[in-house]
Amino acid sequence: MQTRKLDYNVSRQSNSYVILFSVIMTLIVGGLLAGVSSALKERQNEQVALDKQKQILKSVMDIEGEEDIQALYASRISSYVVDINGNQVDAGVDAEDVDISKEYKNKKDPNDRFYPVFEFKGESGATEAYILPVFGNGLWDNIWGFVALDTDFNTIKGVSLDHAGETPGLGARITTSKVQERFQGKKIFSANGELVAVTMLKAESNPANLLDDHHVNGMSGATITANGVSAMFKAYMGHYQGFFNQQGGQNASLIQE
User: Fold this and answer.
1) pLDDT confidence of 226, banded at 50, 70, 90?
2) I need a surface site. Which of 57, 79, 171, 188 has the fewest CB within 10 A?
């Protein structure tokens, strides 16, 4: 009996036992880590989607406190995708799933991209604004946002802007209401129907005669960021020119990046 017990103890310490134990533990730990990673990734994706919904809504309305963003979005926003010519894409592509940042970074031909359109509905159910995404470059990294146009496809009702790494107190100010409110009421078309979008001027406090329908005050110490905002506004409003024409908006030449 004693000999058998000794043999059993020795066998437990054998290489095969150690290897088998290691494999089993690796599989268990690996499975647990994969499960945790999957759960975290799913949670992260949910947060990204929620933030996008919030940014879309903020372009046209005040979002305060702990409002139910998902419920508000579901009741006020309808969405679809159009091509460069303004034709609606019916190939099972959801506007919420279109990542314009990837298409921009991959330098995809604007003619081959998808363009999301988010219609904002009033309490009566009638469309009050068309919200369109914009994307570009700031000083240090990418900048992006949403532009809400009135039903005339010309007047800006509001914007929401964000950034990846602009300088705090300078370019990062594009996220503030003080800067974003400057765009309200501005026009993207000139009187003769040319798409000119809206340009941020260099100075912070410009004379009134310079602040016409197509210009807003810039940001002191953040000229490059301001130029990036102006460039992405003009580029993406140009990409949606076909859509404006389809909807009976102003006529203008198609502007592309």
Assistant:
1) very high
2) 79
